Amino acid sequence: MMLLEMAATAMGDRVAVGPSGSGITCDDLMGRAAGLAGRLRASRSERLLLCGEPGAVLPVSLFGAAWGGAAYVPVNYRLGDDDLRALAERASPALAVADSDGAARLAGVDGLEIVERDGLLADPSGGAETADPGDWPADPDATAVLLYTSGTSGPPKAAVLRHRHLVSYVFSTVEFASAGPDEAHIMAVPPYHVASVAAQLSQVYSGRRIVPLAKFDPEAWIDLVRDEDVTHAMLVPTMLARIVDALDRRGETLETVRFVSYGGGKSHRTVVERALEVFPAAGFSHAYGLTETSSTVCVMGPDDHRRWAASDDPDERARLSSAGRPLPGVEVSVRSPDGTTAGTGTAGEIWVRGEQVAGEYADGGSQLNEDGWFCTRDSGHLDEAGYLWVHGRNDDIIIRGGENMSPGEIEDALLTHPAVVDAAAFGVPSREWGEEVAVCVVARSPIPTADDLRELVRARLRSSRVPARIEFVDDLPYNDTGKLLRRELRSRHAADPGSQVD
Questions:
Q1: Which CATH number covers residue 47?
Q2: For the segment 21-58, what is each residue's pLDDT rounded down to a tens digit?
Q3: Of 163, 193, 218, at which residue does a domain stop?
Q4: The pTM is what?
């Protein structure tokens, strides 16, 4: 609430969210948050559950929950009914804000008081007494946000982000009131992604107008950017790739966009290089972070993007696939299995530490070690210049004949081929080696042969990394937050051991 109070005091008349001529100003946002806070207190709800697409209701709900002393809990509205209701049951007692479809799906869940989002925006207090200015909770250790992470097995875990974690992130990455009055940020990431929470706080604190896009579609995204003179964007890599393709089809570029941040999944160098061309005025920033770290912990900024894209050195140009370097106040360590620090260029487990790092789950408690370090369970390495390279989840590591292999390094090698658009490497069972390397490749014409790709991997890496199986596919499975669903590929190929296209 301190962030919103500062914004309303200094930029009260500036539009915080919505169209430039008719959106909600910072003063309006303050007033609506006060009304919602009063409703939450009257209902005695411990949480505010949000079920629906991006819109003006997001910052009203986020700040209203903070003012009312309730945790903000955006849930994945794309889940099936049973899974969605199970999350709602875990969040109750709660005030649930939903669109009409979500309200019908959540009806009957014990402990939920449901209000439709349009009604909430029209009357945030719902007839309750509006909260008084300045009477919001001031405990930095209170729970601000609960985000359900998408695990590969078992029910999702509820990551706990406390007020101090989120405020620390904003203070370390955003300059107060730094945005010009003409600046606007298009918000297309789902509300239940940590990037949405971070973006709402960052844009309000900087004074940059939020332009929500209810449902991502590359054509709709481009049109909204043009209609609203959007200057800033945050995307997951799959969104960026689809936008670049759409701009290429239209033969267009976007000159109004000044800054593009992307992250949340593996980015491909060829997409980034093309994006630099179709967003000619934009500075690019690649962000690596996790829900448990309050969003970004490493960044590769605009200067690095331009420098590496213009380099004639293949190793320097390859840095476009890195995650950049740690933010101020964040420490990153890559460790070997025995817990010792891995050498430069040596793969290991990524650990992070800093004021913004929460590393806590509602049911599992804090996962920080005695020195405050959090294990990300991601594999990666640091190069000689301190750039972090993220290889993927530790669960994705391929173990062939006792040798650990990162799928990321195999994919990076394949993506140096000019015809390879996307690639996914994974392990499949092998009687001789325990696991063999398999890859699925998306390629453009002229499509290379499997042997061409094997020789490429052999030349850039070593023979043990050469894929035993190669399949050319039309696309790869990603979830809606840009994560590659490698387990789906493993399952399919394990069930069909003869799957191979040469």
A1: 3.40.50.980
A2: 899 999 999 999 999 999 999 999 999 999 999 999 99
A3: 163
A4: 0.86
Q: Give the C-alpha separation, 170 to 194, whole Å.
A: 13
358 backbone dihedrals φ, ψ, rounded to 5°: -85, -55
The answer to whether 6 and 18 are in contact (CB under 8 A) is no
Q: Which domain holds residue 48?
A: 1-163
Backbone angles phi, psi at 139, to 5 degrees: -85, 115
CA atoms within a 13 Å half-sphere pointing along the CA-CB vector of 331: 11
d(C-alpha 468, C-alpha 240), whole Å: 31
* Domain edge (last residue) among 132, 163, 194: 163
For residue 98, the SS3 value is strand
What is the residue whose two structure tokens read 């997409």? 271
User: Whose structure tokens read 């040469």?
Assistant: 502
pLDDT in tens, 309-347: 899 988 888 888 899 999 999 999 999 988 899 999 998
Phi–psi pair at 99, nearest 5 degrees: -75, 180
What residues pair up with 405 in beta bridges, in sequence order?
398
Going by DSSP bridges, is the β-strand pair 24-25/360-361 parallel, antiparallel, or unpaired? unpaired
Which whole number is the average pLDDT over 96-101?
A: 95
